[in-house]
Design a protein that fits this description.
Chain B: Residues 1-24 are annotated as: Disordered. Chain B: GO terms for molecular function: oxidoreductase activity. Chain B: This is Thioredoxin-like fold domain-containing protein. Chain B: Keywords: Disulfide bond, Membrane, Oxidoreductase, Redox-active center, Signal, Transmembrane, Transmembrane helix. Chain B: Residues 8-21 have a biased composition (Basic and acidic residues). The complex is a heterodimer. By secondary structure, chain A is mainly alpha-helical. Chain A has one domain: de novo design (two linked rop proteins). Chain A is built from 9 helices and no strands. The radius of gyration of chain A is 19 Å and the shape is globular. Chain B has 8 helices and 5 strands. Chain B has helices at 3-65, 100-118, 141-155, 160-169, 181-190, 195-199, 207-219, 244-254, and strands at 80-82, 89-95, 122-128, 227-230, 233-234. Chain B has a 5-stranded mixed β-sheet. In chain B, helix 2 links the parallel strand 2 (89-95) and strand 3. In chain B, helix 3 (141-155) packs antiparallel against helix 4 and helix 3 (141-155) packs across helix 7. The longest helix of chain B is centred in the first third of the chain and has 63 residues, at 3-65. Classes of the chains: A mainly alpha, B alpha+beta. At the A-B interface, helix 9 of A face helix 1 and helix 2 of B.
Chain lengths: 206, 255
């Protein structure tokens, strides 16, 4: 049992696991962004599809896509995913091939991706509270963005890329080494699921 | 090395080991706490899924089992019919009071429709549907307004068109919780609905009828609101400016 746990622990902190997770999550995120971008273009080409209110769609991408939040910067948000996720995929693949990026590079990636996560969660909260409709591809983006963020942060703490003061770095490293970050991420994702289920559960079965 | 130095180094080592043990103990406590939280979250998710499945299922069976009481002027197809039954043109309007484009349709055409009905040229069949309930933050605005319209149709049919116009004139934004029951009742009174009829909205007398007729309408192939049919044919012209619909009605009348 102890051996198994130790091996699991080792696997979870290995490059293969971390960058593998990052790669899969980023690919999911990219796929979702792609679908959402195509939908956005289709809606733009034929606004008639959004003229009549969507029916029989408890879960409605159309409702979400036509909200102002969906084009915060004047173009569909999903385009950002098309731009950013391939970079993450590149980092993950290169790292799986044992490439080591400089500290400042990984630090920059962390900063930019953190902004992305904040944006993703702002969109999620808007979708929950203001728009009042659910869009499965957007949810996939929310979850996979969270996972990429978690693995990127894990890597950067492990490798000391975050330019933290030494005591903070030591504390963060202990936190990750004790696998507490895994617990934090699990709680985070479950809270997300619970929020969706309590708000839209009836609609999912209605 | 002096004995003193050795003692000090051993003390240092012991202290470090103790600190590490404390750290480990604390981590184990945090892990256990995290595990408990995860367990609780899982239970909460399952419970809320079961609840959702239960309520969703029971609502459907309740609607299908209850013999839904229809308003007095309702057609078998689930419409509220206004105007001369022998009028040459039958105009069917499928709407949801939460649907913004239905509001635009109403704004553009209500004056013309009122006139056509009053002239006896048109028999107007309104289908108040309730499929946008998810757009009202849980207040089921579509169902509440459709039930209110059905109640007015049943007990004060003369005020139906005025109430319909008033509801669209005060249409809430999609995604908001909509007008409250009191606000809907106030709109009805202003539109000439007697007090006791407006008071009956909260009894939800025609909610089962609204549910069954909404389901029935979608089975006939209606795909969105607003949909307008002239003598059974879907009108494909411009719904959002006054004129084209009137022209199509006049053309159908002449035929």
């Amino acid at each position: 049992m102890a051996v198994l746990l130790a091996r699991l622990h080792g696997l979870r902190h290995s490059d293969a696991w971390l960058f593998g997770t990052m790669l899969v999550s980023a690919c999911l995120s990219l796929a979702a962004s792609f679908v959402l971008s195509v939908d956005a273009l289709r809606l733009a080409a034929d606004p008639g599809t959004s003229l009549s209110c969507n029916i029989n769609a408890v879960i409605s991408c159309g409702t979400v896509a036509t909200s102002w939040q969906a084009q915060l910067f004047g173009f569909p948000n999903a385009f950002l995913g098309l731009v950013a996720e391939p970079v993450v995929i590149t980092i993950a693949v290169a790292s799986l091939g044992r490439v080591r990026f400089p500290r400042w590079f990984m630090f920059a990636a962390q900063v930019v991706y953190t902004l992305g996560v904040i944006f993703a969660y702002w969109l999620f909260s808007q979708s929950m509270s203001a728009i009042g409709a659910l869009c499965p591809w957007c949810l996939l983006v929310t979850v996979s963005t969270t996972l990429v963020f978690a693995t990127l942060t894990h890597v950067n703490i492990r490798d000391g890329n975050l330019f933290l003061p030494s005591r903070a770095q030591a504390a963060a490293a202990r936190f990750v080494d004790a696998d507490l970050d895994a617990i934090a991420v699990a709680i985070w994702i479950l809270v997300l699921i619970l929020a969706v289920v309590t708000k839209y559960g009836a609609a999912l079965f209605g | 090395m002096s004995t003193q130095a050795r003692t000090r180094s051993r003390e240092l080592r012991d202290a470090r080991a103790a600190a590490e043990r404390r750290q480990k103990k604390r981590n184990r406590a945090i892990t256990a706490g995290g595990g408990v939280i995860i367990g609780c979250l899982l239970i909460a998710i399952v419970v809320s899924l079961i609840n959702a499945a239960g309520s969703g299922g029971s609502r459907i069976t309740a609607a299908s089992q209850d013999k839904a009481v229809a308003p007095a002027i309702a057609t078998a197809a689930g419409a509220l019919a206004v105007g001369d039954a022998a009028a040459p043109v039958k105009l069917e309007v499928y709407l949801d009071y939460m649907c913004p484009f239905c509001g635009r349709f109403e704004q553009a055409n209500s004056t013309e429709l009122d006139r056509l009905v009053a002239d006896g040229a048109v028999r107007l069949e309104l289908y108040p549907l309730a499929f946008l309930d998810r757009m009202s933050s849980g207040s089921r605005y579509s169902t509440r307004t459709a039930n209110a319209t059905a109640t007015v149709a049943d007990r004060a049919p003369g005020a139906l068109l005025a109430f319909n116009t008033a509801l669209f004139a005060h249409q809430p934004a999609e995604g908001s919780s909509g007008l409250s029951d009191d606000e809907i009742a106030a709109l009805a009174r202003n539109a000439g609905v007697p007090q006791d009829v407006a008071d009956a909205f909260t009894d939800r007398l025609f909610q089962p009828w609204v549910e069954t007729s909404t389901a029935a309408v979608f089975k006939t192939g209606i795909e969105g609101t607003p949909t307008v049919k002239i003598n059974g044919e879907v009108f494909t012209g411009d719904l959002y400016t006054a004129g084209p619909l009137t022209a199509a009605v006049t053309a159908a009348e002449g035929r």
